[in-house]
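[User] I have long wanted to understand how a fold can be written as tokens. Those tokens are not coordinates but codes from a learned vocabulary of shapes. Could you go through the record with me and say what the backbone is doing? Thank you; the sequence and its tokens follow:
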Amino acid sequence: MPHDFDLLVIGAGSGGVRCARIAAGHGARVAVVESRHWGGTCVNLGCVPKKLMVQASEYGALVDDSAGFGWSNTRGTHDWSKLIAAKDKEITRLNGIYISMLEKAGITLFTGHAQFEDAHTVRIMPSALAPDAKAQTVSAKKIIIATGSEPVRADIPGAELAITSDEAFYLKERPESVVIIGGGYIGLEFAGIFAGLESQVDLVYRQPEPLRGFDQDMRTAVKEAVNAKGIQQHPSASPQEIVRTGTGYAVTLDNGTTLNADCVMFATGRRPKVGNLGLEKAGVKTEKSGRIIVDDTQETSQPGIYAIGDVTDRINLTPVAIAEGHNLADRLFGKDPARTWSIDTTPKAVFFTPPLASVGLSEEEAARNGAVDIYLSRFTPMRHTLSGRREQKTVMKLVVDQASQKVVGVHMLGDDAAEIMQGFAVAVTAGLKKIDFDRTVGIHPTSAEELVTMRTRTRETPHTP
């Protein structure tokens, strides 16, 4: 029996859209199903709106800093509703672009919630994006699950009283005080956003320093930067209960501290979004966490069904989902699928103020493979020699494999770190050595030049398998 489509993609996020477009470009008959947001989490509830809000949070401090350069500007008041309206307008524009791109590629679009009936058949039912849509059934030779992830709340009494990042993007008013629970990307970034817009922020996390999994020197530097931002940190602590008070909410921590705020936000991680997909009917296996199990080709336990992006819970970054989707479409429908990505050297950034960015291995990770040479620099960036904000430091670090002298990790906390790191990611991906950095002429005066002028080894870290 012939199928309606060669490929059906469930989820119109960055990875699903790229996969669909590339497959259609190879001549496949492609359809995409989306239940909530064209463009997925990144465009609607993640990277894009978050970056806009981070930028909004920085302007007040820039006005303050300008006095050191001779300006007589005085910081005004911030209009939260105006920011949210401007953000929403931009997101609506991007939604339209995603729809237009798919339609121009000749892809059939379905709006609704997809649920498997078997390994080749999906029932599309009404969803938040199309509550009045009529249910319909479609079939495809191959199906790709690209439904992304969703935020989780801690399992404590009163958890329902807290918001997550999803709701934070649509708050009608900025809270004067907020308790953020979680010390990962999302917790740090929203702590910076609210603090920059003059909310009082308490940041609670379980580890001694934020950003578990990052290089230890950089975690220490970030902790100092958070303090400099005026954010009250509560490390090595976990929430036990949230209760409503007469004026807001009270959060009780396991160390006996009680924090009061207008708003409580969970930034305690995300989980694969697989609810009510009917995976069991299609024979698609998941782990207890909901993560869809895939092999090296992105194929699930059911031949002909694939999964990409956050739903596989491997490297949960938008560019990785895009790379996986592109590769998969080439492999399934391309005549000469030669494109490859270096996933192991995927750069990453945390858009705090100042931002943190890195590529490659941390010192701790690299030392498991052999002894490493460490080059570390800490300084006040030029801008803040006049702004007076001398507590805002830039920290840079090179991790060099001692035997080969390859630079296997580059890390930076400081202004424009993400922009700078994208270029150095090419160097790490290419396997360049410390001598290649040393013989590169820097651009002066910049912070970036420090990464090619660090000549004196700070320390040697022995092999620690």
Q: What stands out?
A: The mean pLDDT is 96. The first helix runs from residue 14 to 25. DSSP finds 13 helices and 22 strands in the chain. Residues 309 and 321 are 4 Å apart (CA to CA).
